Structure formats: C-alpha cells, structure tokens
C-alpha cells in the first residue's frame, strides 16, 4: 500500500564537483524539489526546474537498478529589466540584496521497486518549468 512506499523507494542526491566546467555555468550544486505520486497504473514524478526547457534536462533510466535520474544545470537568468532599472552597462554591475533562487548543477535519482515498473515505457514532458516523468507499472 501507500504506507510502505517509503520502504521501497530510495531517493538520493549525488553531487558533481564544485568546479564549473566553464564560466557560463554556475559553481556548486543544488537540490531541486520533486514530488512523487503513485496510482494504480504507475508513478508520476514532478520536479520544479524554473527557467529550464525540456531539452536542457536529462532524464535517464537504468533497467538494472530500476532508477530514473534527472540532471541538468539551473542558472541565474537575469531579466533585462534588472539591468535597465539599475542603469548599469551589464548585469555584472548590478548589486543583489537578496538571492534566494538556487543555482548550480543537479542530479536526482529515484529508485523504484524491482520488477514493479516498466522502465521501457518511462516518458517525460515539461511545461512552465515543471518536469513530469511517468513511470508505468
């Protein structure tokens, strides 16, 4: 039943190195939030990945470990209004007073009960910065 789901599902967050691959990528790692729901026909995994498009998110499946892994890079995207309002030449001149949005590389892995799901039919879509991965039973 639903009460035993925690015993079967193992989620973990593994970190990449803290050095950026190039200067356009943020340093460090982040841990985006996901929800996991179960129904009669399968599981649905939802993750908030603000500012990302579907082609910027990697969703991989591992048939041997029954794992779905989601990875990518969250960047701080600065709206043009910030630079215009500050009257500065570029965004590097802007002084930030609050910086609550998390940026960095991320990798989240979700392990499902062995034999309980069909890894060949896993699908993923994304709308308005929310990733939805369906893992059928």
UniProtKB/TrEMBL annotation:
Pfam families linked to this entry: HSP20
Say yes or no: keyword Glycosyltransferase present. Answer: no
In terms of InterPro entries, this protein maps to:
A-crystallin/Hsp20_dom, HSP20-like_chaperone, Small_HSP
The record's listing under SUPFAM superfamilies reads: HSP20-like chaperones
Question: Where are the coiled-coil regions?
Answer: none
The UniProt record lists the SHSP domain at 25-137
Which keywords has UniProt assigned to this entry?
Answer: Stress response
PANTHER family for the chain: HEAT-SHOCK PROTEIN 20 FAMILY MEMBER (PTHR11527)
What the record says about family reads: Belongs to the small heat shock protein (HSP20) family.
- Protein name per the record: HSP20-like chaperone
Q: Can you name the source organism?
A: Lasiosphaeris hirsuta
